[in-house]
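Translate sequence into structure tokens.
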Amino acid sequence: MRILYIAPRFHTNQAPVVKSLIERGHEVSFVVQRVEMSEDKSLINPIICKPDFFYQKIESCRCKGKSNVWTENYRLRHFIPSIRSLFIIIKRIRPDVVIYREPNVFSLISRIISILLSVPNKALYTQSPCMRTDDSFKRRMKNIFRRLFFGSKIYSPVFVRRIDGQEKPLYSQGVQFIPFI
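Result follows.
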């Protein structure tokens, strides 16, 4: 099976999952926004997706004079890939399954391209907890959007997030719990 990950970067904690998939005979590809020096690239060489030309101009103005943490958070949420380049990458790989690492603009555009290319299966892997103690309107709207766009296959290794350690009612986020991924 050809498996394609769409993620901001190939984080070293994903190496064991990729190794396990490769050992079971799957072809694994990773399309990323950027590559960091600390990442373990011995198993797989991530494909870096070029940013959109206009996004680069906006980012350079928006991030000028900001801290590195602010800039990284901005890039994580708002990175816009070159649609042409991403389309070519996904078409060349012809994945059977696409796993989106974060529900951000990069994943959203990748999902649209996957739909256009008729990629049959998709899953969203997130660090969002399956259960939360807060159930705000904004949180519910995010969950509705995630489920509509990414479908019912949303997974997380984080089960519960409690605020202030207090015992409060728990609200389902529509995310399936899978430990150790």
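Note: Helices lie at 15-23, 53-62, 68-78, 83-93, 105-116, 137-150.
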